[in-house]
Every structure is written in C-alpha cells, then in structure tokens.
Amino acid sequence: RLLLLMPVVGLFAGCEGRDERFPLVKDGRAAPIVLPSGAEASTELAAKELADYVEKITGRRPAVLTNDCARVPRVEIGTLNTMRGLPDALVRRFDASPSWESHVVICTKDVLRIIGRDEVAELYGTYRFLEEKLDVRWFKQWTKEDPGDYFPRRTTLEIPLGETFKAPDLSSRWLAETGSSHQGCPSRGVEWTVRLGLQCVD
C-alpha cells in the first residue's frame, strides 16, 4: 500500500509552484518597464506600445524607466546589443539564428524580458507578446472613427512563466498591390502593418 501511494505523493509534490505567474498588473499596481542605457528607438516604441495597451486593458499604466532598476517585479525590453549580463547560452542561440528578427520572451516570477537579436526585433517580440498573452488584436489601420484594435478589459494581468524563442518563417513579408509604389506600405498603414509582423519601409 505504501508503494502505491508514493508515486501519487511525488506527482503532487512536482506540481508545487506551477501556478506561479509574473504579476504584470496585480492589486492595482503595474510592473514598471525598464529600458537599457542607449536603448534603440524601436525599444522605446515597444515600451510605449506595451504601456499603452496595459493601460487600455487595466486602467493602470506602467512607468517606463530608463535607468538601472533592480526593483521587482519589472519588465525589461532591449536587444542583444543593449542588454547586459545575458546568459551565454541565450547569446549563442541568437547567434545561431538565421534571422536578425529573432526574439525571445523570458518570464520568471520577478522579471519579464523581451529581447530582440537586433533593432526592431524586440518590437516584433512585444507585438507578439501583446497578441499571445494579452489577447490584443489589430483588425485595420487607425482612423479617428475607428482605431481598429481590440483588447479585453481586465483588472489583473498575470503572465505564465516560461520562455518562448521565435524567428519569422519568412525572411521577407511585404504588402503588395496596395496602390503604392515600390511595394511600400500605405502612408496611413505603417503602424498597422508593423503590428501585424510585416516589414515596412516608411
């Protein structure tokens, strides 16, 4: 009888801590977004987009900090070139990736990191995080009458722990036959196309 119980005890013991999540917004407080020194313009845009949608969803806006900050919980956004102290294994994984647009989201109970291999990759990673974890959608380009986006209303945002490394399946992703020349994006649709993960030259 003891032998039969032992696997069951081990099973429940292995489940301890599985429900831990990163508190992006909890108890009325939003985790700050911390940018590295010398952050890319695309990193600053990524932080603004994340802060904007967290505020739209919860009514709580994360502070965006540009100095070193060790407080937890916190969100960190940056690139391989601007973020310091990254694990060697992660650096090697980026180096081995064929795409400069590869990015990773690493979520621990204290820190959520969105890291791009190169400039703009972290912006794509932030948009995928908004889609996959916060259920944000962009259905059309913005107009005064209709911003074209969808987002849920929540008071709490808790993110499951884990790591997701992604690289685009297609190295080129352009809008063609849009009534513009040289396969450029329509001038009013640049923001929308980049949010969808397409490449665009403004």
Using brief descriptors, characterize the structure shown.
202 residues, alpha/beta, 6-stranded mixed β-sheet, 3-stranded antiparallel β-sheet, 5 helices
Shape: globular
Low-confidence stretches: 1-17
Strand content: 15-25%
Rg over CA atoms: 19 Å
Tell me, rounded to a whole number, the average pLDDT.
83
The structure class reads alpha/beta
What does the main sheet amount to? 6 strands, mixed
What secondary-structure arrangement, pairings included, does this model have?
Elements: H1 2-14, E1 21-26, E2 29-30, E3 33-34, H2 41-58, E4 64-65, E5 74-79, H3 88-96, E6 103-107, E7 111-116, H4 121-134, E8 137-138, E9 149-150, E10 157-160, E11 162-166, H5 190-195
Parallel strand pairs: 3-4, 3-5, 5-7
Antiparallel strand pairs: 1-2, 1-10, 6-7, 6-11, 8-9
Helix pairs in contact: 2-4
Explain what this protein looks like in three dimensions.
The protein is α/β, with parallel strands linked by helices and 202 residues long. It is built from five helices and eleven strands; from the N terminus they run αβββαββαββαββββα. The strands form three sheets. A six-stranded mixed beta sheet has the order 4-3-5-7-6-11, with helices on one face. Mean pLDDT is 83; it is low at 1-17.
